[in-house]
Amino acid sequence: MTLVALDSLIQAAKAGQLVSFPTDTVPALAAKPECADLIFQAKQRSQDKPLILMGATPEDLWTYCQGTDSELAIWQRVADQFWPGALTLVLPASDRVPRVMNPLDPTTLGMRVPNSAIALEILAQTGPLATTSANLSGQPPLLEGSEIDLAFPQAQILSPACCENQAPPSKLPSTVAKWTGKGWETLRQGSVQLLSSN
């Protein structure tokens, strides 16, 4: 069993290991951005499916994207309205983003601040992490630590005992919206309704 306490999971993530923890949607499989290949290998995930960068605050994420001052102001307004929450924004990537995050199109990056106290506590200490749902590619998301442990024996998985006082996750994936340069294009509709173009 690789179910671990919070401090152990944070240290494992900092050391470049694969970890798993709850979020406000479904449990995440996560690693440092430069170690994102661990996620692709563990999930048997196609390289045309990029990962999401999850951070504790919008400010932690903005250095991983690039835009004009007016674009940054628009993105900040959306972040103020919906983060933390189940909205993933796909934005132009800066040169700080390791190519392994999105191997086939390193010019864009999905990013999110989850509405989960335990996830935010982890991310505040590790810095932004490359994330995706904890499941083998093409399979339904795994929801229990014991299931994740069986599927990913190489990962350090947060013990359920650390999460007893957390709000229950929605079990729905996040809404994914891509910035087109002029407005937002919804790539996947989840629980968040992003109606405005700005």
Summary tags:
single chain; 198 residues; alpha/beta; DHBP synthase; 10 strands; globular; double-stranded RNA binding
Short description:
With 198 residues, the protein is of the alpha/beta class. The protein contains 6 helices and 10 strands, in the order βαββαβααββαβαβββ.
Question: What's the count of strands?
Answer: 10
CATH architecture: Alpha-Beta Complex
* Major beta-sheet overview: 10 strands, mixed
Low-pLDDT runs: none
- Shape, principal axes of CA atoms: globular
Number of domains: 1
Helical stretch count?
A: 6
Give the helices and strands as they follow along the chain. EHEEHEHHEEHEHEEE
CATH superfamily: DHBP synthase
The CATH topology: DHBP synthase
What spatial order of strands do you see in the largest sheet? 1-8-2-3-7-4-6-5-9-10
What is the gyration radius calculated from CA atoms?
16 Å
| CATH classification, class level | Alpha Beta
Description:
The protein has 198 residues and is α/β, with parallel strands linked by helices. It has a single domain, classed as DHBP synthase. Helix content is 26%, strand content 21%. It is built from six helices and ten strands; from the N terminus they run βαββαβααββαβαβββ. The termini are far apart. The mean pLDDT is 92.
Furnish the topology, listing elements before pairings.
Blueprint: E1 3-4, H1 6-14, E2 19-21, E3 28-31, H2 37-43, E4 52-54, H3 58-62, H4 69-82, E5 87-92, E6 108-112, H5 117-126, E7 129-133, H6 145-151, E8 156-158, E9 175-179, E10 184-188
Parallel strand pairs: 1-8, 2-8, 4-6, 5-9
Antiparallel strand pairs: 2-3, 3-7, 4-7, 5-6, 9-10
